[in-house]
Design a protein that fits this description.
CBS-domain; Rossmann fold; four-stranded antiparallel beta sheet; binds magnesium ion; 425 residues; 3 domains; six-stranded mixed beta sheet; binds adenosine-5'-triphosphate; alpha/beta; disordered N terminus
């Protein structure tokens, strides 16, 4: 049977494969008990925090500002990790602590296992220039230099010779779709294009980590989603680790592999969008997601259930297997069942009717009884697309992982009940 994959389905499968790779991947960045106190008596403030005092009291009594309090998390190699929270929650402070643009008061930051706090000034500078680019909301392009020179600027500072740096700058301009504008000046470009020049500049040194603080916030919504797409596709191709600060939930859900939610300097939850939407840690997180169209971010995997009948195709026991399949469907009082091979890969669906028809025709192969138009859907398929398929399908749809293995099925009833639950949350 032909499985009906469309382009989005393939994309979704790729996304799932990526998620799996991330799960097994190496830790790129480890943050442990990181603190930042602004003020002249940080030790006192730390002690008060240890005693369980609230940051508001500490500010009132000592004038010390707790910027980040006891943050711990791990970012995997190749992950887009979004830090989100209300204004003043400590996002910018946290991201600047990672490359020591702000000196930590206490705690650890490890990049590839190396302690950032222990780095000498020159090593730190080298890391910022080469391995850990930072992209801000405004890129501060040099107005009297061409787009190409702007993109090459970081390499120029590092002393890379002209030929080499221009070749590299051209490469990254191509990646962000700006190659035809290489000879123009920033003022001749739109805001969105200028932002791309900034992104190209950050990419030019081929950093393994990019730190991006509200990098797209100044853009209009259309340019913004365009840039998000550029970033995600670049990241997929090049497997860079990206830490991305945003106060925009939509953006976080769109691009983030995982999201870290901050409140008042503390990390209150880290998880995938699915985790956070379905199991918010507290009311603050819940409030964040109020009004969010939860269904928009649900996937086939998050609604699939295993209650449907599965039938193993055993070509060596043709007739017996065939009758056993019919028996199973009758026993469980189901009209449809999914046929799996030895590796649990979905071959398709059969119905009581299609089985009986084959019986009557004297063919006893489960493969001959497969229904013609039932395709498997990938686990990462967005729910919007799934709804279309489920509504159009006469029978439940099997959901498969990136290798085509059965993970469960979705019926119209399951889908409806999940969607209603999502709405109440
Ligand atoms: N240099 C500083 N001196 C004193 N307090 C500071 C300093 N920088 C930040 N803060 C305080 O630390 C807290 C966290 O600020 P931060 O800029 O990290 O928040 P944010 O989440 O990035 O906010 P926004 O969304 O508005 O950018 C705030 O209370 C802020 O006033
Ligand atoms: Mg900020």
């Amino acid at each position: 049977m032909e499985l009906t994959w469309d382009v989005r389905a393939l994309e979704a499968a790729a996304a799932e494969q990526r998620a799996r790779r991330l799960e097994s991947g190496a830790d790129k960045l480890v943050v442990r008990n990181l603190h930042k106190i602004f003020g002249n008596r940080p030790e006192l403030a730390l002690r008060m925090l240890e005693e369980g005092r609230h940051k508001d009291d500490i500010l009132k009594e000592t004038g010390q500002v707790v910027g980040v309090q006891d943050a711990s998390f791990t970012v995997k190699k190749g992950e887009i990790f979004v830090i989100m929270g209300l204004s003043g929650s400590g996002k910018s402070t946290l991201i600047r602590l990672l490359n020591r643009l702000i000196e930590p008061t206490a705690g650890e930051v490890l990049v590839d296992g190396q302690d950032v706090a222990a780095m000498s000034k020159s090593k730190l500078l080298e890391m910022r220039r080469q391995d850990m680019s930072m992209v801000f909301q405004s890129f501060a392009l040099l107005p009297h230099r061409t787009v190409l020179d702007n993109a090459a600027f970081g390499l120029e500072v590092r002393g890379v010779d002209r030929d080499k740096r221009e070749r590299r700058a051209m490469e990254v301009l191509e990646q962000v779709g700006l190659a035809p504008f290489a000879k123009r000046y920033p003022a001749q470009l739109s805001g969105g294009m200028q932002q791309r020049v900034g992104l190209a500049r950050a990419l030019a040194s081929n950093p393994s980590i990019m730190l991006m603080d509200e990098a797209f916030s100044a853009l209009d919504p259309l340019r913004r989603t365009e840039m998000q797409d550029v970033l995600v596709s670049l990241q997929r191709e090049q497997s860079r680790t990206i830490i991305f600060v945003s106060h925009d939930l939509d953006e976080a859900l769109r691009i983030g592999d995982r999201i870290c939610i901050m409140e008042g300097g503390r990390v209150v939850q880290v998880g995938t969008s699915d985790d956070i939407l379905q199991r918010p840690a507290d009311d603050y997180v819940r409030a964040f997601f109020r009004g969010v169209d939860v269904a928009k971010y649900m996937t086939a995997a998050s609604v699939a259930q295993k209650e449907q009948v599965t039938i193993f195709d055993r070509p060596e026991e043709l007739v017996r297997g065939f009758h056993a399949a019919l028996e199973r469907l009758r026993l469980f009082d189901r009209d449809y069942g999914f046929v799996l091979d030895r590796d649990h890969k979905v071959l398709g669906a059969v119905s009581v009717e299609s089985l009986v028809r084959c019986c009557e025709a004297g063919t006893f192969s489960l493969r001959d009884a497969l229904l013609p138009d039932i395709g498997a859907v990938p686990a990462a398929l967005p729910i919007d697309d799934l709804i279309r398929l489920v509504v159009a399908s006469p029978c439940p749809l099997p959901v498969v992982d990136a290798e085509g293995r059965y993970v469960g099925a979705v019926t119209k009833t399951i889908l409806l009940s999940k969607l209603c639950k999502g709405e109440q949350a």
